[in-house]
Amino acid sequence: MTCKTYKSLILCFVYIVSCLLFRVESFTPVGRYAHSAVLVGNKIYFFGGFNGKTCTNEVFYLDISQKFNAELPPWTDLTLNSGIGFESCWAAAAVINNDNNPNIFLIGGLTSLQDENELGSQQVYVFNPKSDQWAMPIIKGEEPAVRRRNFKAIVVDNENILAFGGLTTGDAATLIKDMMVLNARELTWSYGNVVNAPTTRDTYTATLLLDGKLELVRELL
Asked: Regarding the domain with residue range 25-218, which homologous superfamily does it belong to in the CATH classification?
């Protein structure tokens, strides 16, 4: 065996070992619904969702800053090190940007399909996209009496997170009629005026109009 052939075999062996040890496999999330999604800069972050069998604790994002093949989107999975601390479905997500340091508030939702009466000790969790870390903020004021799902959260003035209605998470789910307000800077709860408010609803879209009004549109099933 010549020296040249021997070196080629060594290089081939090193290449194969490197592929086995350090290969990077692409991540493709399974289909789901009841997940939470929010845009932060050029990335769409996804949280939890029902995958056909159970709720998940997955966290991943899609970078839309550059063109990509729609059949092979460049997903990035954060679940291994930054997954939600519980399985999450039908929660609401909202972004507050403090001095270019965004925080994603994940509010309410089901934490388990096996026990829908499970309220948990925390109704709000905060994810920081820069550190990929979760926090459990201490929020002052009167906490919502019930945990809710199937609702939307809207941010006003990059400070207040508003959420109307939704469903309770118990076995006998009922519609809620209140306007929950979370001040994300001062971390306080309050409640808006529901005089002349729309009928109770869940599974709707929520849009903040240019005149400052909140438009709620019920989804037709």
From this structure: Kelch-type beta propeller (2.120.10.80)
